[in-house]
User: What shape does this take?
Amino acid sequence: QLQLQESGPGLVKPSETLSLTCTVSGGSISSSSFYWGWIRQPPGKGLEWIGSIYYSGNTYYNPSLKSRVTISVDTSKNQFSLKLSSVTAADTALYYCARRPYTNYFDPWGQGTLVTVSS
Amino acid sequence: NFMLTQPHSVSESPGKTVTISCTRSSGSIASNYVQWYQQRPGSAPTSVIYEDNQRRSGVPDRFSGSIDTSSNSASLTISGLKTEDEADYYCQSYDSSHMIFGGGTKLTVL
Assistant: This one.
């Protein structure tokens, strides 16, 4: 059964870079059938797509975050990563990683990790 | 890009049927598949419906999805409501390879 697990610092200072990793187990990140994505959810609010990546490194980003986001993949470790630069309190959220089939939905999701931006 | 608009909240009694709508602001609802996710309090979202009307494996057949081109909207219908269905529900579609979520609907079963 495919599982995804987010990891990374739970506290980031304003203006610094948020870095998270998603580890995929029970399946290969190099599968040609899937993209892999990051989604976030501010406390008490809705879901926001951040971006997606293919195992080859092809990426798509939310236009509203594109200037600050980098998503990368490490097929040797079966992981993909998120970097979000110049963070502010508005970037405080639960960050989820998920698998994305070609028909553009997310399944399954990781359990999520809370990142707080605060000095 | 288009927007997906959902009602903020809906409520219904156990055993009844409820429908949650998701209206696309521009372009045809039929142009891109619509997905639905359930998020129980304190948990990650899980897929319930994908590709407009396909139930994810393990999801009860009380859950169904549809689209209506006349209202340019998608709907999630839950019949025979159970207290365990109380959750937030999100619709999702896409524009090229950019994913778009609706704002979410809180379903209360009382």
About this structure: The longest strand of chain B covers residues 87-95. Chain B has a mean pLDDT of 97.
